[in-house]
Design a protein that fits this description.
Helix content: 40-55%
Order of helices and strands: HHH
Radius of gyration: 39 Å
Number of helices: 3
Length: 138
């Protein structure tokens, strides 16, 4: 095991942070209700496995020499966490259904309702009654 904070604290902290950021990124990618698309979830898992695997390699199998400090290992998890939180916030905004607005009747639609500018019809004379012969008188 290569983690020794008294011998080389920078290397030891780098390994620990690689492991933590890798696990956090994998966990975010595995949450199905995160609101992330399938592509972003797959990217989270791949990046997390890569960070975690490099941390395991440096912590347990590395035998000295040169190693590369990837600052992306600290930037990418922060960006992915921000994207995760933003997608959760957007999912909550769109999940609330909006009830339809009630509308009042338009003029002339309700029974016996006239248009505002229309005057009532003038009164008409009653139709003549038919006579006994069946023909009306003019």
């Amino acid at each position: 095991m290569n983690i020794d904070f008294s011998l080389d604290p920078t290397f030891s902290w780098y390994v620990v942070l690689l492991l933590i950021s890798g696990l956090a990124t994998v966990c975010i990618g595995l949450v199905p209700a995160s609101g992330l698309s399938a592509g972003w979830r797959i990217f989270n898992v791949i990046a997390g496995v890569a960070f975690f695997g490099y941390g395991i390699y440096l912590g347990f199998f590395f035998e000295g020499g040169t190693y590369i400090i990837f600052f992306k290992a600290f930037i990418v998890p922060i960006v992915l966490i921000v994207n995760f939180v933003r997608s959760l916030a957007n999912r909550n905004k769109t999940a609330v259904p909006v009830p339809p607005q009630a509308q009042g009747p338009y003029p002339g639609q309700a029974p016996f309702q006239q248009y505002p500018a229309q005057a009532p019809a003038p009164a008409q004379a009653p139709a003549p009654a038919p006579q006994a012969g069946g023909e009306p008188v003019a």
